[in-house]
Design goal:
288 residues, 8-stranded mixed beta barrel, two-stranded antiparallel sheet, alpha/beta, 21% strand, 38% helix, 9 helices
């Protein structure tokens, strides 16, 4: 696991009236909840503005998060408007985070669409934006190549983080500072430098590479043995595959009956053999 660069907490109205000045020198940053759900003032976090002002006075850099209830893209747009309304005149040097964890949220492409919608709106407005969720959802619902370019804040209350490429890690929900309980976090990136300098393009390079590798591995694992034997090859490709195996002496493994020859082929592999057969046919024509 990479070394962390800064440690901090996240707070909301449920933490009450936090003495942020007393946290100076004990935390490097604070992530503040601005609200939850769609753009209604009744759903603003009641301590948000006070917490922002206290961070400013204490000189503690902060980020902002919104708790999502979006069931579709329209609701995600409203949540983005909610956040943008509360960000006016505010510079969150630890970014804006979309808290995606509620049990009512959709699965499949719908939740991916919501994340892309929300983060896209925040980024268009000039804010650095990432996704917060717990480890299981990061590995399942949010493990999409469509989200590979978006930073991750991962909740795993543990002594180590079992997720590669995260920008932040919420490692405890029971930290005690000044006799008050807080969620504890670690940042693996220098967010104030990244955000103030506009160095967003390089920030998620490690994450993109890791998620791309995972997606490629999943596709490979799912398809590598899609056509285990010659007889399982689709009818449209089988003559070409058999011809390439004959011409190039690719006998496969197995015994006796050629149709039972084991080839352990993926769909991509079969298409490649089909193309090779067409190339061989063209070469034969040139030689005549």
């Amino acid at each position: 696991m990479a070394d962390y660069l800064a440690s901090g907490i996240d707070i909301s109205q449920f933490n009450g009236d936090v003495n942020i000045a007393a946290l100076r020198g004990k935390v490097d940053f604070i992530i503040i909840r601005c609200g939850y759900g769609s753009d209604y003032s009744s759903q603003d976090d009641t301590q948000y503005r006070a917490n922002v002002e206290k961070c400013r006075q204490a000189g503690i850099p902060f980020g902002v998060y919104l708790y999502s209830y979006a069931r579709n893209r329209e609701m995600a747009l409203s949540e983005a408007r909610h956040t943008l309304r509360l960000l006016r005149g505010i510079e969150p040097l630890y970014g804006v985070w979309y808290d995606v964890e509620d049990s009512t949220l959709p699965a499949g492409e719908a939740i991916v669409d919501n994340c892309l919608t929300y983060c896209g709106e925040l980024q268009k407005a000039g804010y650095y934006c990432g996704i917060y969720s717990f480890l299981e959802w990061m590995r399942t619902r949010l493990n999409s190549p469509r989200l590979a370019h978006i930073d991750r804040w991962v909740a795993q209350w543990n002594s180590q983080l079992d997720y590669s490429g995260a920008g932040m890690w919420q490692y405890s929900d029971s930290g005690i500072i000044n006799n008050q309980r807080f969620d504890l976090n670690r940042a693996f990136r220098d967010y104030p430098a990244i955000i103030s300098k506009g160095e967003w393009t390089n920030m998620t390079k490690e994450q993109v590479a890791e998620l791309a590798r995972k997606e490629a591995q999943k596709v490979y694992d799912a398809n590598e043995r899609r056509y285990p034997r010659m007889k399982d090859v689709p009818a449209w490709a089988r003559p070409a595959v058999e011809e390439v195996y004959r011409r190039l002496d690719l006998t496969g493994t197995g015994s006796g009956n050629e149709s039972n020859a084991k080839i352990d082929a993926s769909h991509t592999y079969i298409r490649a053999l089909y193309v090779i057969e067409r190339v061989l046919r063209e070469l034969d024509g040139l030689e005549q």
